[in-house]
Amino acid sequence: MNQQSKVAVIGAGVMGEALIAALISSGVNPDRITISEKREERAQELISKYLIKAAPLTANVADADALLLVVKPQDMASVLEEIKGSINPTSVVITFAAGKTISFISNGLGTGNPVVRVMPNTPTLVAQGMAAASMGAGVTAAQREFVLGFLGATGKVIEVSEDLQDAVTATSGSGPAYFFAFVEAMIAGAKELGLSDHDATTLTIQTIVGAAKLLDESGKSATTLRENVTSPNGTTAAALASFGNDNLNSMVAKAMKAARDRSQELA
Length: 267
Fold this sequence. Notes:
The protein is an alpha/beta fold. It contains 12 helices and 8 strands. An 8-stranded mixed beta sheet has the order 3-2-1-4-5-6-7-8, sandwiched between helices. Strand 5, helix 5 and strand 6 (115-119) form a beta-alpha-beta unit. The two termini are 30 Å apart. The relative contact order is 0.10.
């Protein structure tokens, strides 16, 4: 595969659009990208914005070297049924549906196409995503390089064995919501201390964004940065002691295990 390979994107919602942008950023020519989207107005919006094409589902998959399935998990079985008679037999199939295994996709198609399973997350929408990819049987070196290459344009990407995808879901897939919940709690706590909603929100968001940037760019671990800001018997130490008394680490671990277990149930 190369930058002139034909790519079919099935499902042009918010994540689908983010992946289209990533494909183009990674060097794929827009006129080699074709979407299949039931909502005509949405399809036209993306055609105008990215200068890509649109085609009916069966015609699109027949002509594609790579097929991105960006549909809801509950819709996956019917999509596979619809395309299995038309799919290009050499196309790599890349699934972004939470909980849907490589074997589910392979069995649903029954065509022998190589399958890659990807768990993205919502910061992909601002090119700061975290994706984890698992390669199925038959994925070629060129196909693997293509997938990891365009996913890298969405933020960062790692490769994991498929049996770890539920753990990935609990960490980075659901992880943004943990962060947003913590931000909500901080804003609420600041307001209880007397700050206005506007000031509480501004203080909290910029503190979180700045801390994340410092963690990403300083080269120091979270442990080191936490220690650097914590003076003995100071204000930060008092807050962290309260976290410790409420067993923050075990609470987070318990929540992540619940997410992992639910991901397994949905498979």
